[in-house]
Each structure stands twice: as C-alpha cells, then as structure tokens.
Amino acid sequence: MTSTAHDHDRRGTDPAAPDGVDDLPYAQEPDAVLERLGTTTSGLSADEAAARLRTVGPNRLPTAPRPSALRRFLSHFDDVLIYILLAAAVLKAFLGDWVDFGVILVVALVNALVGFLQEGQAERALDGIRTMLSLTATVRRDGRWTEVGAETLVPGDMVRVRSGDKVPADVRLVRATNLQVDESALTGESVPAVKDVAPVGADAGVGDRASMLFSGTIVAAGTGSGVVTATGARTEIGRIQALIAAVDHLDTPLTQQLGRLGMLLSRGILAMAFVMLVVGRVVHDFALPDLVSAAIGFAVAAVPEGLPALVTITLALGVQQMARQHAITRKLPAVEALGSVTTICSDKTGTLTRNEMTARTVVTAERTYAVEGLGYEPTGSVTLDGSPAPLAEHADLAALVRAGALCNDARVTAGDDGRWTIVGQPTEAALRTLALKTGADTAGTQRLAAVPFESAHKLSATLDRLADGTLRIHVLGAPDRLLDRSTTQRGPDGAPVPLDRAHWERTIDALGAQGLRVLAAAQRAAAPDTSGLALEDVATGLTFLGVVGIVDPPRPEAVAAIADCHRAGIAVKMITGDHAGTAVAVARELGIVPPGEDVQSLTGAELEAMSAEDLRRRVRDVDVYARTSPEHKIRIVRALQSHGEVVAMTGDGVNDAPALTRADIGIAMGIKGTEATKEAAEIVLADDNFATIERAVKEGRRIYDNIRKSVVFLLPTNGAQSLVILVAVLLGLALPLSPVQILWVNLVTAVTLSLALAYEPAEAGIMDRPPRSRKEAVLSRPSLAVVVWASLLIGGATLLLYLVEQQLGADDAVARTAAVTMLVLGQMAFLFSCRFLNGSSLTWRVLTGNRVVWVAVGSLLALQLVFTYAPFMQSWFGSAAIAPRDWGLALLIAVGVFLLCEVGKVLARRMRA
C-alpha cells in the first residue's frame, strides 16, 4: 500500500464505520460505501445523527493551542547576549547602582518589545483554512431534505449540492448531473473538475478522485448528492491543516548567522571578563566591588545590545521598500532570506500562468489560425501567417467561431477595476472571448433548445434559429466524441465533404503535445419544423468544423523574471497539480529550462514510489513536478534543503500552505491566493506577479549587504569600548568609561549612524552574482579584519584622549566625557569608511548618494551635545561640559581614524585576494 493510501486508511477510520473496512470510498461502489457507513440514500434519522455527532464531534477544524502574549514576549529574552546584559543588571542591583540597573534593564526591555511587535503570527494560517469551510448544508434527515448548520454533519449523512454551493464535508457521490467543481484551491487545477459516481482506482491522487467532493471546494456547475464520508479534521482540508501544524519551522540564514555570532561573542566576553578579574585581583589587588564594576562595564561594553534593534530596523525599512514594489512582508527575517534564495519552487496555476483560459490556436480543414491576446480581455486579433484574418474573408473560421459562440452559456464582463471576469465555464469563456476578438455577429439568433454538457457524453448542443430563419444545430465538446458523431467536414466552398478522421486525430495529438486543451465544434442543419433537441439528435450526421486549442497562458512578465532568476544563479522549479503534459509544455514556454533541452519531470505517482534517498538524488535535476499532493510538495522542499538549498515556495491554493510553511521563504499570491496561503506565507505578492519575486530577491540582497555593512560598523563600537576597559584594568588605571556611558554610546550610534547604512542603494551588478552560501558568515575574514582594525583604532584614540585630558588637569567627569565624545566621532568617521566596504571611500561619492547619512550625523551630534551639556544627562550619566578645545582635538583624531581605516580596508582586500 502506498503512503497516500495508508494515510487515507488511517484517517478514515471513524466510529460510525464497521471495524476492519478499508476506507477508500472513491474506489468503491456507492452502495458499498453506504453499507459501510450504515446508511441509505434516505439519509439518517435525527436521533442517529445526534448520536453520531456525540461520537465523532462537530464538523469543524480543531483550534491549535497558541502561546500566550506573555510567553511570546518572554521568548525574545532567549538570547545569550541578553542573558549577559540581564546578569549585569542583577549585579548592579546588588551593588545598589540603581541608575545603571535601570538603564541596562530598559535596553533589554526595548529590544524585546521591538521583536514582539514585529513578529509574524504564523498560527493564523489555521484560521485562514477555517474560513473556507461551509456554514450550512442541505441534508436529508428523517426522509426529508432540510438545511442545517454544517457543523452538525456526521459520516453517513446524505447531502446535496448545486451550482455556487460550498461543499460542507468530504462526500462520496451517489448521484451527479452535469456536476463540475472548482478544486483549484485544493489541487491547483485551473479548470473545474468533472465529477461522476463511478469509482476510480485506489491509487488515484486527490485531483483524480472524480467520485468525491471535498470540503471547502465550490460547485461550479450542475447538481449532485452523496454520502458524507469524513468531517472536521478527517477531511482532506483537515489533513492539510494538520500538515501545517506539524511542519517544523526553519530559521533563516541571517537568524542562524547572528545566533552563531552571538554565541562566539558571549564566549569571548566571559573568557576575557574572567581573565580581567584574575589580573585585577592578583596583579593590581583591586577591591572586589571595583573589580565587579569593571567586569560589568566590560560585559556591557562588549555586548552589542544595539544589534537586534539595528537588524530589526534595517529589515523594517526593507519591508517598506518592498511594499512599494507590491511585495508585502509578514515576517521580518524573510526580507533578508530572500537574498540568499537558491531555488524557487512555484505553483503553476495563477502564479506562473494567468488562470484565465485563452484560445491560442484555431484549426479548420483548410487553415491553422493563431490567436493573439491573453486572458479574458477581448483584445488581440486572429491571424493567418502573421496577417489579420477577418471573418468576412475566412468563412471556415467564421463558421467555427460562430458555433463556439452560440453553443455557449458563458459571459465575459469588464469590472469597475478594469479586470475582465467570467460567469460560466472557463473553456466556454475562452470561446466567448475569441468571438469578441473576431467581432463574430450572433445578433438575431434565437436559441430554441439545448442539450447541457454532461460528463457521460462530454458535449453540449443547441438548436438555434439563425437571422435568415433557418434552423441549425451547433455542437461543442471533446474532439473524440464529436468525431464519432461526424460523417463529414466543412469543405473549401462550405459544402460538406467526407471526414478525414486520421488528419484530425494527428492535429489533436499535436495540439495536446503543446499542452493545449482541445475543444471541437460541429453543426448540422435541422428541419424547419424542429422544436426540441435531444442527445439522440446529435448521435450522427454532424459536419465537423474544426478544433480550438486552449491554454492557461504564462504571464509574459514571469518569462522575463525567470530569465533574471537564472542569471542570478537561482533555479526555478514548477510544482503543480495539473497534468504532466500541460505542465511540461508551459515550462518550456516559460523558459524554466534553456531552449533545446528536454524538461525533466516527475508525477505524483512516481514521487510516491520513490524513497527519500531516491528523491534526494534526483530532486535538483527535475524541473517539473505534476499531479502533486501537499505531502509531495513538502517532500520536494525537504529534499532540496538537504542539499543546502535555500528554498522559496510560491502558491495560491490551500494545497500550497504546508509547503509554504516548510520552505525557507513562503510566497503567496495576494489577489487569487486563499487566506490560508497568505497566513502561512512570509511574503504576499499584492499584484500576483511572479516578476515581483525577482525584484524582491534583489531587494533582499541589498538589505543583506546593508545589514553586513551595519554589523561591520557597529561592532567596533563594542570592540573599542571593551578594549578601553580591558587595557585600563590590565594596566591598573581608573575606568575611562562607566557602564551607563557605554550603553549611551551603543544606543545612540545604533539608532542614528547604523540606521543610515540601511538606506544605502544596491551595489552595481548585485543580480549578476550567485546566491550567497547558507554557511557564509555574516562577518567574512576580511570584514572581521576591518572590525578588529577599527576597534583598535577607535579604542586606542579614546584611551589616548582620556589620558591626554588627565595630563591636562581635567577632572574625571570631563576626561570621561571627552572619551565618550571621541568614541562618537570615531564611529562617525568609520561610518563614511563603511559606505564602500569593497572599495575606497576616498572619493567625493562618499558625501553623496545617501542623504540619510547626513541626517544621522546631525542627529548624533545633537544627542551628544545634550549628553554633554544638559544637567539632567550629567546627573544620569556622570557627564560634564567640555571645552571647544576638547571637541577640536577629538575631531582631529577622528580624521586620522578615517584615513587609517582606509589603509586597513586595502590590506583586508588583499587578504581576500
């Protein structure tokens, strides 16, 4: 038994069913399913339904437990660097330094609050699925049809549905009349599925179970009735909900890198603090309170507490920028992770294609015509060898188009927003749009009778009185069914000639090989006194008019976006519930594989038979996955991730939600996507445009570059401060900086100068380089060398100015304030150096291109003036007013720091080479 069948067997065991009965209702005759469920076509009695409801529970999806707001808030303290800060605060409280305690605690609280407010609520994906469930149902109870709340349905209930209804539970059909169901949200199929009561194979996938209706899908046409086989969590949609809840969440590459960086920093901080304590006690015989204060100062200096806020702000600014480009970000880390994507797994229908059936090719006995335009908007023309083909000059085309327009119940209308929508069947709407493009005149034609489409005969027919008063039967349907009923075909002069069936079969096969759905049209004259129409009237004697090739066309912008992704080293794979032939044809047209190469594909059935290791070996070589289920999509994503791929998964149906949750980045369609898909995704495309993904990837790469620049810029602040404290203790000097002064510098530089780098424009050629490796460190070895060099320069300058001020007779408060000023101006100089990490900043361009740099510099200078001269700041932070001479000396040293940083960058670039 396959794993899918096993899942259904296990899922379908309900208390209402006899023990030991295999639960594959779609593969059994209706009578067998009714007997197994202990019911009949007359339905259950109200008492029996109530008893079963008490046993199986209500027909609704269970609510998953969610962590409380307090627990989610406290989770943001779960960081080793924050632990060090909190420990420092506790020690300050024991020493009675309440101002220091308060400042340290506020910093930790602010960081946690920012994370709490910005985090995405992924659990809402489950709520999004619940909104898909029907509220009411028409059920047969006590022998009468009645409307009840859908939550009261139980296995064994008989329900009926009609066009427009939302299916209230999983139902095995007992009767069906012209029944078609839109299952696109569940299977990804772009065309409504035709339903029938006949059983299907036990190994049939969800999209091939024609004898079943699934909870949450919508009836597009016809009527049907059947027996409820599963409710609530046992339905297909309930199983998808369980998949979402069970999917393990993956940290983004940046989250992992920052976690590793935090762990390395914490170990280094603790080790150096221990060495400092030993040296201070053994060598210099410091008093224990002084040593503890020095250790706390060192820890506070070394911890980059501004880093979480810096990353959050940079990502938030990226979110705003992406929103302007129609990519709505629900979870901040997703912005950066987009920049490291190596593979995009995309759903086909509505994502790479328009989900609007379009007539592309018209073939008559004489000619083959091409149809321009996409979707339901009636723009474009029909051409022959590249030239317009007006109906007045092409009677063969006119006859076929007119037949398709008359034997048609669909309507195409323009909405207030300019978008064209349909009422009726998508394939019929494609023919209606074709008629509008050609200007076919059907005015004055009166329909007298019709044979509706049914899956049993796969055709529809109408009896029409034409404008000249003659009667004609028009037939539209599957080509093989119309060929069986045709004896002639339309000749060059319009008169019937013998049917060339072999020619038409070759034509139909060729169109099918292109991924086109093929519809045929035929006609015959009717006697003047004919008033009715039955299926027997079109059993033979038809004149075959030709065929129309219909396709759900690729989005033109998706073709260009896929080419851009390939140029950026990103693979694109199609994962769809559609048939393999259609999927492969669309993949070729989209350029998912280079021209001239064969498209490698796998079907869901082939996937089902493969082991995890077999799939892992093939997954990177396969471009198209067809007839897939939600479990298959998760397996594909996991197999790609096992190779170290950073996977983005796009989709619009609820069937995509579990894979979106598992992928590194889930991307949902905002217009046509279900609420469940949007809530499961990190990114929602407001314009449903695949090209937006490419722009979002570029933005993600820019943001990561800016985060890296910001980290390189921020760390020397901590490095310089901790170096000052360490050297002071090792040399037996008084501390040049107090812990609260250190926190002040960290915070003001993080929210002013660091913020400026978030606005840096993208570097040239950013989309010509391959995706960065997941294992690549935030700080590369050359970047780390720049950080160490800048830390030594800024720290040395700070200590130098502190000692100079003491030699000039300044008191400790003034000397410390001068040291803080030196730190600030040193960071300001380093900011300009960091604008061009990969090149020289000794250029006039360093002063232009990012006006936020100057806003940040002005803001920082204003804050530093407040720190220096405001009495309340002097009271809180122990600062003091300094003379203009001190400012001038600090500024002069800062210029030297900038020039020496440029020398360090040259040496670092040579290290990379």
Automatic annotation (TrEMBL):
Q: Which segments carry the region annotation Disordered?
A: 1-25
Q: Where is the Cation-transporting P-type ATPase N-terminal domain?
A: 24-97
Membrane topology summary: Multi-pass membrane protein
Q: Which InterPro entries match?
A: ATPase_P-typ_cation-transptr_C, ATPase_P-typ_cation-transptr_N, ATPase_P-typ_cyto_dom_N, ATPase_P-typ_P_site, ATPase_P-typ_TM_dom_sf, ATPase_P-typ_transduc_dom_A_sf, ATPase_P-type_domA, HAD-like_sf
Ranges of compositional bias, category Basic and acidic residues: 1-13
Give the reaction(s) catalysed: ATP + H2O = ADP + phosphate + H(+)
Q: Write the record's keywords in alphabetical order, separated by commas.
A: ATP-binding, Membrane, Nucleotide-binding, Translocase, Transmembrane, Transmembrane helix
Q: Which Pfam families match?
A: Cation_ATPase, Cation_ATPase_C, Cation_ATPase_N, E1-E2_ATPase
According to the record, the segments passing through the membrane are 76-95, 101-117, 264-283, 295-319, 711-735, 741-762, 783-802, 814-832, 852-872, 887-908
Q: Where in the cell is it found?
A: Cell membrane
| Protein's name according to its UniProt entry | HAD-IC family P-type ATPase
Organism encoding this protein: Cellulomonas dongxiuzhuiae
What lineage does the source organism belong to? Bacteria, Bacillati, Actinomycetota, Actinomycetes, Micrococcales
